């Protein structure tokens, strides 16, 4: 059996043509992934605090308003429980600093937070009930009453065990902690 040189040349050209097409498609796909990941990220809710499990976080949109889901970086309020404190009123920090949390915006700058008995009110509307102790038995200190300052927000989840702005340990969320607006996927 004889095979001509043109047979090998034709096959090589077909392979090169296929590599070009797939290379272009791969480059486009990588470009789309890079563009998507520079603006968006996925948030996974691993607790019962929110009704959804997966969230799309728009990192370019940090302008959140009442009722929006907000993704933010957890920062433990150091005034609530100094590290190494033997104070029985101090709950240990259950969430590592800089972990991403997602909650609902329930209060913005200018809103008044007040506490009557164990109920948190924002602008005289009941928002949540404060528990005195966490599941592990440590004491939970309530957020202080007052007006939400400029560049801050009250983040909340409806679940009774949610660790959110009703407690002093996270407190109010500063705009520097906001990672973006979150959208539930499922």
Folded structure, characterized:
With 186 residues, this protein is α+β, with helices and mostly antiparallel strands. The protein has one helix at 5-39; strands at 40-44, 54-58, 69-73, 100-108, 112-116, 119-122, 125-129, 146-147, 152-156, 173-174, 178-184. The strands form two sheets. The chain has a seven-stranded antiparallel β-sheet. Strands 7-6-5-8 form a four-stranded antiparallel β-sheet, with no helix packed on it. Strand 5 and strand 6 form a beta hairpin. The mean pLDDT is 88.
Topology:
Layout: H1 5-39, E1 40-44, E2 54-58, E3 69-73, E4 100-108, E5 112-116, E6 119-122, E7 125-129, E8 146-147, E9 152-156, E10 173-174, E11 178-184
